[in-house]
Design brief:
mainly alpha, Retrotransposon gag domain-containing protein, Retrotrans_gag_dom
């Protein structure tokens, strides 16, 4: 049965680019192991009989809407896809759905009704999640905060990092460096650096 399954999926598996890559049979057995245990990492990395290490099985951190920033999470997920050469939209969707955590998945499932999330395209799911978890800020309010910044007890490097951080949602575009330089100088406290 496993050999039949290997023969069925083999044409759809991208040819390995390195000699130490896992063969089709090992990949199928590892996937079956995942379905049986509900986790790659718990069993694969601890099982000496599988002869593969945990890093051989790509995983991604779980998203928690209570503590994680959705925009940053999505950027990191995109890098995960790039690093693991994952381009197939169905695989991207499966990784997203298995990485967003139970509460986030339940919410997404409710947003997709009457369909299941797995029937939606990856980009469509990201759009739904962005509407729910994305930070929607007023550019003008963010710019006002930026322009009101004054250096307090920060070092010069901390001051630069602070103004850079406050500029993130200002959408200054190509003028970002001009605004950063201006704010850096005009927001400095009186002292050695400003008096140079």
């Amino acid at each position: 049965m496993v050999l039949d399954l290997c023969n069925i999926v083999e044409p759809f598996i991208v040819a390995p680019s390195r000699t130490s890559a896992l063969d089709v049979r090992t990949k199928v057995l590892t996937a079956l192991n995942f379905y049986g245990y509900g986790s790659y990492q718990l069993n694969v990395g601890q099982n000496v009989n599988t002869a593969i290490s945990q890093p051989s099985v790509p995983k991604f951190l779980e998203f928690s809407y209570e503590s994680d920033d959705w925009e940053i999470y999505l950027e990191r997920l995109d890098q995960h896809f790039t690093a693991n050469n994952i381009g197939d939209e169905k695989i991207k969707t499966a990784i997203l759905l298995s990485s967003i955590g139970q509460e986030s998945y339940k919410l997404l499932r409710d947003l997709c009704i009457p369909d299941l999330p797995k029937t939606k395209a990856f980009e469509e799911l990201c759009t739904l999640l962005n509407k729910q978890f994305g930070v929607h800020m007023s550019v003008w309010r963010e710019r006002r905060k930026f322009h009101q910044l004054k250096q307090t007890d920060e070092t010069i490097t901390e001051w630069y990092a602070k103004i850079h951080s406050f500029s993130v949602h200002c959408k200054f575009g190509n003028n970002l460096n001009v605004f950063l330089k201006d704010k850096f100088v005009t927001g400095l406290t009186q002292g050695r650096v400003l008096n140079r």
